[in-house]
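W.,

You were right to be curious about this one. When I first looked at the sequence I had no strong expectations either way, so I just let the prediction run and decided to look at it fresh. Below is the sequence, 192 residues in total, followed by the output.
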Amino acid sequence: MSEPVPSPTESGGQAGHRFEEPAEAAATIPYRFLTVHRPERDAMVSALARVVCVPTGDVDVSEESDGHHDWSAKVLCDYEPLTGDLALAWDVRVSPELSPPSEKEAARRLAAVLGSTVFHPTAGVRPSAYWATTPEGVTTRARVLDLDPGVCGKPDENDDGPPALFVDAAEAPLAQLPGARVERIPEAAEDA
C-alpha cells in the first residue's frame, strides 16, 4: 500500500529525474525539496533567488515535462506537481561559484520566504526519511511515503498521474500537516 519515497540519488522514478544537460550544468550543487504549497512559477523564481542571493534573472524554473532550460542560468529548477499531503517536488541545481548554502539552510530560507513547510531528504539510506522545516524555522525529522493512486481518492486506473506523497509522521507537530502523527522517526536517527 505505501512505498518509501526514492532518495534523490536513486535512478528512475520521480526523485531520480535527470534532465538533458550540458556538462557544465552537471557540476552543480543539487537540492531536492518537497513543499506543502504550490507557488506560481514567478514566486518560485523569486524565492530561489532570495535563497541563494542572486538576481531573479539568474534563476531558471521549468516544469519537468517541458524540458526547456536556460542553461546559462546560475540556478536551475525542474518542478513536478504532486498529490496527497505535498504539492510540489523541486529538483534544484545551483552553480558552485555562488557558494550556496547547505541544503538544510536552503530549506530553512525557502520555508520562510514561501510560508510553506519544506521537506528535504536526510543523509541516511532510508528513502522515507526527510527533514521538515516550517515557515517559523522549526526543523524536525519526518517520514514521507508514496501512496498508491487509489488511496488518495484517485481512480486506480490513473497510474500515470502525479505521485501521491503522504507525510506519515514527524518528530514535532507540523501545523500545515495536522494529520501527521507525532512520533520518533528511527530511520533518521543516525542523520543528526
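Here's what jumped out at me. Confidence is low (pLDDT under 50) at residues 1-20, 154-158. And, maybe more interesting for your project: Helices lie at 23-26, 41-52, 103-114.

Coffee later to discuss?

I.
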